[in-house]
Design goal:
Blueprint (H helix, E strand, L loop, with lengths): L4 E5 L9 H13 L4 E5 L10 H7 L3 E6 L1 H11 L5 E6 L5 H5 L6 H10 L1 E10 L2 E3 L2 E5 H10 L6 H12 L5 E7 L2 E13 L3 E3 L2 E2 L11 E7 L3 H14 L5 H4 L4 E6 L1 E5 L6 E3 L2 E3 L4 E15 L2
Parallel strand pairs: 1-2, 1-3, 3-4, 4-17
Antiparallel strand pairs: 5-6, 5-17, 7-9, 7-15, 8-9, 8-14, 9-12, 10-11, 12-13, 14-17, 15-16
Helix pairs in contact: 1-5, 6-7
Length: 298
């Protein structure tokens, strides 16, 4: 079957201008002999208006030039089309692309789109909202909320906000239910990961894979900040999963599950794939196994 690509380009993602990128995409795709159309991303995040266009024009691939948030929105709206999804990463973190082995270099990423291989990957639902990669509750979500309001994006801005907030952060009370267990804890953050990427090649859940059918849960419990930081680094470097029962005794809890329920009585902030989300007292998360086709390096 001959290919036809629908490109969705976020004009404000990340730090780079998109005019030259769009011209490059159009020139390279035309040279490959593949018909295509380009649409801008939409502020609402709802791309269901493209469903009739996809059917009429018989597109085979949807390629997003943007960050993790835009990619998640596009996939959520259009994954029932069963088309192939591609990524040209130009966001601030690009966690999903990096987890899939897709270069942040636009030329190399476009080569993956044109010559890569689609394979099924997982997603997950957070209170009914779709996520591709990572959801955070607590400290990292507070940073995500502040980051979304910055005029200047990029790694430097994000690192500055992390440094500013880390040592002043307070823990939040949570009740967690997963794998048949229920426990109370005070934690600085809870990360729910479908990939091993926090973004910018920083690993938060070293054993997480895009297509293993599990969510990786990382809970940074209340402890002294230097001790917590040491144990986070130790956990990441060790890259080991511990049985959930044993993990509960550690400063950093790390386990896998197919679903998790989190009671969040203090209404700690939350993000979904880097974008601020509405705070919730109860957070229910479940894996969606093999739910969309992602074009990855062959």
């Amino acid at each position: 079957m001959s290919r036809k690509i629908l490109y969705i380009i976020n004009p404000i993602a990340g730090t780079r201008t998109k005019k030259d990128l769009q011209q490059f995409i159009e020139k390279r795709t035309a040279a490959a002999g593949i018909p295509f159309q380009v649409f801008p991303s939409v502020a609402s995040g709802d791309y269901s208006f493209l469903l009739s266009i996809i059917e009429e024009e018989r597109f085979t691939d949807i390629v997003v030039a943007g960050g993790d948030g835009t990619i998640s929105q596009v996939v959520s709206s259009l994954m029932k089309t069963n088309l192939n999804f591609g990524i040209i990463p130009c966001g601030s973190g690009n966690g999903l692309a990096l987890a899939a082995g897709i270069s942040k270099n636009p030329e190399k990423a476009l080569e993956v789109v044109l010559n890569g291989k689609p394979s099924l990957v997982d997603g997950f639902l957070v209170n009914g909202l779709f996520a591709c990669m990572l959801t955070g509750i607590g400290f990292d979500a507070k940073v995500a909320h502040e980051f979304s309001n910055q005029k200047t994006r990029g790694l430097k801005t994000y690192a500055t906000l992390v440094s500013k907030n880390f040592f002043s952060a307070d823990p939040y009370p949570f009740t967690v239910e997963a794998n048949g267990l229920r426990f109370n804890t005070e934690a600085y953050f809870i990360s729910i990961a479908n990939s091993n990427q926090f973004g910018n090649n920083f690993t938060i859940a070293p054993k997480a894979l895009l297509s293993d059918g599990y969510l990786d849960i990382v809970i940074a419990k209340r402890s002294s900040k230097p001790y917590l930081l040491f144990n986070l680094i130790k956990q990441i470097l060790a890259g080991k999963l511990i049985k959930m029962e044993s993990s509960l005794k550690q400063p950093v809890i790390y386990f896998q599950t197919e679903k998790i329920k989190i009671m969040n009585p203090a209404e700690a902030p939350m993000h979904i794939d880097g974008d601020p989300a509405e705070m919730a007292v109860e957070v229910n998360v479940q894996i969606l196994k093999s739910c969309f086709l992602l074009i990855q390096p062959a």
